[in-house]
Design goal:
about 425 residues; alpha+beta; BirA Bifunctional Protein, domain 2; Rossmann fold; 5-stranded mixed β-sheet; 16 strands; binds adenosine-5'-triphosphate; binds magnesium ion
């Protein structure tokens, strides 16, 4: 038997209903914030992720799915969405539009080679959003409000906003040097990955899951202490706008993100929910002021977030989607000669917009009714040799059992009034 690949899973019909619920909430809240959907390809040139997510990030060094296509091009299955959105904005010169900032959201599968566990898959889905072309702290605050509103929309109230600032330019470089100087004498006490990160990506050490309780990191310098006045002001403005919107937050002076491109604000939303276990961070994001330029676009500051949808799915109770949806009509045909006419009526009814199903015709009446019940119709339509010759059809109300015979010519009109009566 061929089975699914490790770290992937099938979304079966019952589970799909939960996805619809999430997707509906995404569209609704995105419209409220006036973000438009963008859809980019699932694979991209590997360079894109090397240059954006970062050559030295865990994602690029350990987690990407890479392959060569038949012409020897190096291709990567996207591990995240921001890089592709930025590439698309640059490629289509969307920034030439006058209505800046650009506000885009995306939903789709991402791929990372990780150790699969609850809330962590190799093919998983993200809902993300990006605001491009604005450096105002208003955009950072709006991004956080939007993310939070989405969680409220799906009924998740118990959420903590963790926020920090990494600064930009000199603040960031300066801080990096301080951190290196502090860590250098103790580098041997850190995990192997962190020893490697020390050279290329020292900020990432603060985010290490292995070393998170390591005493060396407890007294490490913090980004906030090294912010320039301007960077400090940006951060305070973001917090001021959050206050103005009544959004609570916790300043987490150790929060950094695993991707290289972040500047200024970084944040995570942590949900308190029993089904999440260790995977309680459902959303992460921040500002990335130089990514667009570094991919040869204009000097375009930006800010965004990404949700892991599988984690949210774990929190949606089964009862929410337990309600069985039925079809409008179930067609039951009896007799060898009726099949063609029966199919033409079914097609006609579907064209008129009703949901219609049928069992394979000519099975026993009992078998067909049994199949009909599984589909929970509002009405049965019963059609046999007699009806074929008289040009009629029987309509049976599935709830009351009332049955009537109507002329085929009148079927549509009669069904319209029956559905209207019972609406
Ligand atoms: P983590 O620390 O959990 O590995 P991350 O920092 O790698 O997360 P991001 O790259 O910021 O995550 O992605 C944003 C969100 O996407 C995460 O907060 C999480 O909810 C979700 N996510 C990331 N990787 C996975 C995965 N392998 N499976 C399911 N969801 C994921
Ligand atoms: Mg990760």
């Amino acid at each position: 038997m061929i089975t699914k690949s490790k770290g992937t899973y099938d979304i079966l019909p019952d589970e799909s209903k939960k996805w619809h619920l999430l997707e509906t909430a995404i569209r609704k809240v995105s419209a409220r914030y006036n973000f438009k959907e963008i859809r980019t390809p699932i694979f991209e040139s590997s360079d894109l992720f090397h240059r954006s997510v970062g050559e030295t990030s865990d994602i690029v060094t350990k987690e990407t799915y890479n392959f060569s296509d038949r012409k020897g091009r190096s291709i990567t299955l996207r591990p995240e969405g921001t890089a592709s959105v930025v590439r698309s904005v640059i490629e289509h010169k969307l920034y030439a539009e006058s209505n800046l900032p650009l506000k885009y959201y995306y939903v789709g599968p991402m791929f990372r080679y990780e150790r699969p566990q609850k809330g962590r898959q190799r093919q998983f889905h993200q809902f993300g959003a990006e605001t491009l072309g604005s450096k105002t702290p208003l955009a950072d605050a709006e991004t956080i409000a939007y993310a939070l509103d989405f969680l409220h929309e799906i009924g998740m109230e118990d959420v903590t906003v963790h926020i920090n600032s990494l600064g930009d330019g000199e603040s960031k470089t300066h801080y990096r040097d301080q951190l290196r100087a502090y860590l250098e004498p103790n580098i041997n006490m850190l995990c192997e990955d962190c020893q490697r990160r020390f050279e290329d990506n020292p900020l990432r050490i603060l985010d290490c899951k292995v070393d998170k309780d390591n005493p060396v990191l407890k007294d490490a310098p913090k980004p906030l202490d090294w912010l320039s006045d301007n960077d400090k002001m940006h951060f305070e403005d973001v917090l001021g706008y959050l206050d103005a919107m009544g959004i609570d937050y916790v300043i987490d002076d150790r929060l950094v993100r695993g991707l290289d491109y972040y500047t200024h604000t970084v944040f995570e939303l942590e949900a308190d929910h029993k089904s999440l276990g260790a995977q309680s961070v459902v959303c992460a994001g921040g500002r990335y002021n130089h990514l667009v330029k570094s991919l040869n676009g204009p000097d375009f500051p930006a800010v965004g977030f990404a949700f892991g949808l599988e984690r949210l799915l774990l929190t949606i109770p089964d009862e929410i989607v337990a309600e069985e949806e039925g079809v409008d009509l179930f067609f039951i045909a009896m007799g060898k000669n009726v099949n063609h006419k029966a199919m033409s009526i079914v097609k006609f009814l579907r064209d008129e917009g009703w949901s219609v199903d049928y069992d394979f015709f000519n099975r026993s009446l009992k078998a067909q009714f049994k199949q009909a019940e599984r589909n929970n119709p509002a009405y049965y339509l019963i059609f046999g040799d007699d009806e074929l010759s008289s040009g009629t059809i029987n309509i049976k109300n599935a709830t009351t059992g009332d049955q009537e015979s109507v002329r085929l010519d009148d079927l549509k009109t009669r069904l319209v009034s029956l559905f209207a009566e019972n609406a």
